[in-house]
Amino acid sequence: MVDVVTRARATRRRVKAVGAGHSFTAIAQADDVQVTLDGLQGLIAVDRQARTATLAAGTRLHQIPALLAPHGLAMTNLGDIDAQSIAGAISTGTHGTGARFGGIATQVIGAVLVTGTGEVLRVTSGEDGENAEGGENADLLPAVALGLGALGILTEVTLQCVDAFDLHATERVEPLEDVLASVHERAASADHLEFYWFPHTDLAMTKTNRRLPAGQRRDPLPAHRAWLDEVVMANGVFGATCALGRAAPVLVPRINRIAARLSGERTYTDASHRVFATRRTVRFSEMEYAIPAGEVVGALRAIRSLIEERGWRISFPLEVRFAAADDLWLSTAHGRDSAYIAVHRAQGEDPRPYFHAVEALLRARGGRPHWGKMHTRRAADLAPAYPRFADFQALREELDPDRVFANAYLRRVLGS
């Protein structure tokens, strides 16, 4: 990797690293040379006592549970998709849900990267994973842990893990107004809460997960039920209803009402990663914004009114999740407890009118866009949203003065 960067700098070419290519944005699109992290996979080191694990940067999230299991460890939190590389997930601010838990990048306590000058930079927070004293370049960790690929090419990532745990999951369809009336209490009392609102209906599907010691009383879904729910209903039937709604938009409200009621209720307990992540095969476009947690009810009501006023037919549910405040410089949850609202359009539908209008509503509530999902923001209007934005730009100037890692996306969101 050092040789690639050094030669690119000498010939004034640009280099971009790509993990799983999961982002909706062009954050990993290369102007000149693209390098894949596929050859950098696997567990490099583990410290069971300190509960830390060092992984090669290209390791996929879905590979990590099996790598940690022999050591009795797990990642603290995960999102609902596990196809990404660990480097890509942290670099774009991928997150799960849980008002007391941060995004995946908050689990990073160390990293190794090749900078734009071809140097190998090691960053650690300290041996105990919590105290920065004794760390190596520890002051840079809040930038490097979520760096958008602008500071260097990650080769190793060290995570602060936890003892392996199970999740008791409860999923049910409820009246939307009941959910909104108690959403802050629910988010505070649950370990992990998310919900989906089906546009054109008064219904929401809630997912509430409670953490339990591993193996205490595991009761996973029977194989046939999991196959029926996730393969047949969540992907097969849902894909068919999206296609039907695209062909006949007038049917979308009725389809959504049926889909919401068919979601049903289920309760089960399984290993944490099996509950966090779900299989998705339906293709779609997505935009997601982080807003202050206290704004979520007003924002949902505003989006609902917007959809009705514009006469849109939206087949995809809106997804709402939560995260704790953190100190990462470019984290969407920097300095504030946050709620995330994700909006989608099925493949073949033009997402721009819907996304642009929702983006305007969420920007007015202090919204910050997910770095790996569609948005229209630029450096000039992103800078005021991030108190450490100028510090990140200064560090970028130091680590990549010739902009070896620049591309069109980074020029738009970070400036030249």
From TrEMBL:
Entry keywords, A to Z: Oxidoreductase
GO cellular component, one term: membrane
SUPFAM superfamilies tied to this protein: FAD-binding/transporter-associated domain-like (SSF56176)
One Pfam family per UniProt: FAD_binding_4
GO molecular function: D-arabinono-1,4-lactone oxidase activity; FAD binding; L-gulono-1,4-lactone dehydrogenase activity
InterPro entries according to UniProt: ALO_C, FAD-bd_PCMH, FAD-bd_PCMH-like_sf, FAD-bd_PCMH_sub1, FAD-bd_PCMH_sub2, FAD_lactone_oxidase-like, Oxid_FAD_bind_N, Vanillyl_alc_oxidase_C-sub2
Domain FAD-binding PCMH-type: 1-164
Cross-referenced PANTHER family: D-ARABINONO-1,4-LACTONE OXIDASE, L-GULONOLACTONE OXIDASE
Protein's UniProt name: FAD-linked oxidoreductase
Organism in which the protein naturally occurs: Serinibacter salmoneus
